[in-house]
UniProtKB/TrEMBL annotation:
This is LRAT domain-containing protein. Gene3D superfamilies: endopeptidase domain like (from Nostoc punctiforme) (3.90.1720.10). It comes from the Bacteria. It comes from Hyella patelloides LEGE 07179.
Length: 155
């Protein structure tokens, strides 16, 4: 859960670290850590935003990253959606199977709240086969209410 102060701090940090001329800008990024894959949104060739557990801007150099082969929205749109998603989902609890870093990052980058890790887990049948059932509609309603219909697209 994020406070208003945390949202403002993260928005400012995202804007300060974002570089639209970098190859990682607005990309859906992935890395392996112990038993799970983790997901983030690239801000520049140096930094990424990680929604895993604790929302934070972290250095890319500390991870063995790969850009996912997923078709994403245009990079500028992804970064704008990332900034607004902070407020929209500020009260949502992180959960490995229900609402995780992959759901969040894929929603921001592709407009699809989906986790392949959940889909291929033995408990997928308890968790909508990897899809979050409400996140896309909630985010789209939030963006419409804010007058940001241009941020609602599919890749």
């Amino acid at each position: 859960m994020l406070s208003e102060n945390e949202i403002v701090r993260l928005r400012n940090e995202i804007k300060a670290k974002a570089n639209s001329n970098s190859k990682m800008y607005g990309k859906l990024l992935e890395w392996q850590e112990s038993f799970a894959n983790h997901y983030a949104i690239g801000l520049s060739d140096e930094y990424m935003f990680s929604p895993g557990g604790v929302f934070s801007v972290i250095k890319i150099s500390e991870y063995n990253l790969k850009s996912t082969p997923t078709k994403t929205l245009p990079s500028n749109l992804v970064i704008q959606r990332l900034i607004y998603a902070l407020d929209c989902f500020k009260t949502w609890e992180y959960g490995l199977l229900g609402w995780n870093c992959e759901h969040y990052s894929r929603l921001v980058a592709t407009n699809e709240a989906f986790s392949y890790q959940v889909k291929f887990s033995p408990l997928a049948f308890l968790n909508n086969g990897g899809y979050h059932p409400d996140a896309v509609n909630i985010f789209q309603k939030y963006l419409k209410k804010k007058g940001l219909k241009e941020l609602i697209r599919n890749p």
